[in-house]
Each structure stands twice: as C-alpha cells, then as structure tokens.
Amino acid sequence: MYLSGLDEIDRKMLDLLTQNARYTYSELGERLGLSRVAIKNRMDALEQRGVIEGYTVIVNPQRLGSAVSCYYEIETRPEALPRVIAALQDCPSITQIYRVTGACRLHVHAVAASQEELETLTREVLDQLSGVERIESSVILSRVKDVKGLRL
C-alpha cells in the first residue's frame, strides 16, 4: 500500500513495528541498515506528525474468561448524533466508536466482563439513548482474523 509522505524506509519501519512494537531502535536499525540514532529520529518525526499515535498492549478479552464482545449498529436521527456519540464516549465498556456510511450512522464495539454486564450496558445505556431509531447487535463468538495496525 502506498502512503504519500512516507519513504520506503519509513514504510518498512512501520511494517516491522506493526508486526512487533517491542523492537528496540537498535533492532530496527539492524533490520533496516540504519543506526539506532537514525531510527530514533525517524520515530520521533513520525510521532510528531501524528503518523504514530501511541504504543499499547492489545488484550484478547476472550482469553480472560467470561468476557463478551459485541458490535452494535446504531441509527440515530441526525440532530441526535452528537449527543449519542458523547454518551457512548463516556461509557467504559465501549471500546470503539466509528462514524460510518450505509444503513447505520455508528458502528460501536463493546467489551463486557460477562453476559449480564453486556445486558446491563444494553438496557441502561443503549436503550436509554434519546434520538436512536434502531440498534442492531452482534455478539462475537470467536476471533477468526484480527489485523492490528495498518499494513503498508
């Protein structure tokens, strides 16, 4: 995939980091034929430009026991959309909110500690949202493919 504003070394460096974000500057330098300082300078520049937004640990909630993941498709009246987004942003069980095209306005991912917690989220938060015309939900049964990061 071609991304304007990135040279070949930046693309290779980002590809390596999406595979393993724990690579040190020295390890990246060895793989790319650059010094540790050159890699650090490139990383700093990518962070300052906002290309790299942060570093994190990705936890698989299904491996923690009874955690339940669910996707919600939410259709709102246009004037209610900002209010609905604000309410969803304040909910700790909501992990992702996307504004989308198509049959719904929002695509929302939630992770709950249990089926009961997911039901509580649905009943006490989602069902109470003013201006919502339709909510469809899909509980995730298993993870088949889940690519993290952008493939360059």
Biggest pleated sheet: 4 strands, antiparallel
Radius of gyration from the CA trace?
20 Å
Cα-to-Cα separation, first versus last residue:
5 Å
The main sheet orders its strands as: 2-3-1-4
Approximately what portion of the residues adopt beta-strand conformation? 15-25%
Oligomeric assembly: single chain
Estimate the helix proportion, in percent. 25-40%
Overall, the morphology is: elongated
Number of strands: 4
Q: How many helical elements?
A: 5
Task: Return the string of H and E elements.
Answer: HHHEHEEHE
Task: Calculate the mean pLDDT score and round it.
Answer: 88
SS-based structural class?
alpha+beta
Name the poorly predicted regions: none
Could you describe the 3D structure shown?
- The protein has 152 residues and is an alpha+beta fold.
- It has helices at 8-19, 25-32, 36-48, 81-89, 115-124, and strands at residues 68-76, 94-99, 106-112, 132-139.
- A four-stranded antiparallel sheet has the order 2-3-1-4.
- A hairpin with a 6-residue loop joins strand 2 and strand 3.
- Helix 2 (25-32) crosses helix 3.
- The longest helix has 13 residues, at 36-48.
- The chain is elongated, with a radius of gyration of 20 Å.
- The mean pLDDT is 88.
Topology (elements, then pairings):
Elements: H1 8-19, H2 25-32, H3 36-48, E1 68-76, H4 81-89, E2 94-99, E3 106-112, H5 115-124, E4 132-139
Helix pairs in contact: 2-3
